[in-house]
Amino acid sequence: MSQKAYSQGSTFPATKPGVLRIYSMRFCPYAERTRLVLSHKNIPHEIVNINLKSKPDWFLALNPLGQVPVLQIDDKIVPESTATCDWLDDVYPENRLQPADPYRRAWDRVYASYNGSLLSNDPFELHTNLEGVKKHLQFFEDKLRARGDGPFFGGSKPCIFDFMFWPTFVRLPIIAIIKENPAANIDENEFPTLETWAKAMKELPAIKDDAFDVERHAIFFRGHVKGTPDYDMFLDE
């Protein structure tokens, strides 16, 4: 199946019985969360990318909000990144990502909510208030250090929140590039626990297989800001 994004007027790509599908967009941080969980848990799936500026009618029929990610298998449809990640962990319980401790699981939900405030309603519009960004990072620095069983928020192994936070964290340096402000770069000496976490995350096969580097994210982001995002960027390389 082509990685190119399906747009308005395209024909619905027929599903196959029993085959899990994710409707995604290659640069979307929310869809990236779900793709990372799929990859980390080695769940067989196919990917259908969507042009979010010119959404196909058949995609809007699946999710009237017009947002990715959306999971589909047979007659089951699950939208939204948190719901899709939790559903995948419940339906495919091997290599469990949700903490067994209810208290820890509850706090992971709190972390996810706080992480969400780093992104506006537009998933690519990062806050440019550096003090606000650093306040969020300090929160996660302190919480991860307090858990004390790292390097991951899940301890010796990643949990769902690790994959929820990563797409946000990896996009923060875009501020430094777009605003041409080196001060926006994350100082590893200021957040040493998060730096150790980031190094451990980068070694995970799911991260290596899915992630773009910050420069490519910035190239896409510039097009998005101008209203001309290229959803098929870099596919011809």
Automatic annotation (TrEMBL):
One of its GO terms (cellular component) is cytoplasm. Its EC number is 1.20.4.2, 1.8.5.1, 2.5.1.18. This is Glutathione S-transferase omega. SUPFAM superfamilies: GST C-terminal domain-like, Thioredoxin-like. Exhibits glutathione-dependent thiol transferase activity. Has high dehydroascorbate reductase activity and may contribute to the recycling of ascorbic acid. Participates in the biotransformation of inorganic arsenic and reduces monomethylarsonic acid (MMA). One of its GO terms (biological process) is glutathione metabolic process. It catalyses: L-dehydroascorbate + 2 glutathione = glutathione disulfide + L-ascorbate; RX + glutathione = an S-substituted glutathione + a halide anion + H(+); methylarsonate + 2 glutathione + H(+) = methylarsonous acid + glutathione disulfide + H2O. Residues 18-96 form the GST N-terminal domain. Belongs to the GST superfamily. Omega family. It comes from Elysia crispata (lettuce slug). Keywords: Oxidoreductase, Transferase. Pfam families: GST_C_3, GST_N_3. GO terms for molecular function: glutathione dehydrogenase (ascorbate) activity; glutathione transferase activity; methylarsonate reductase activity.
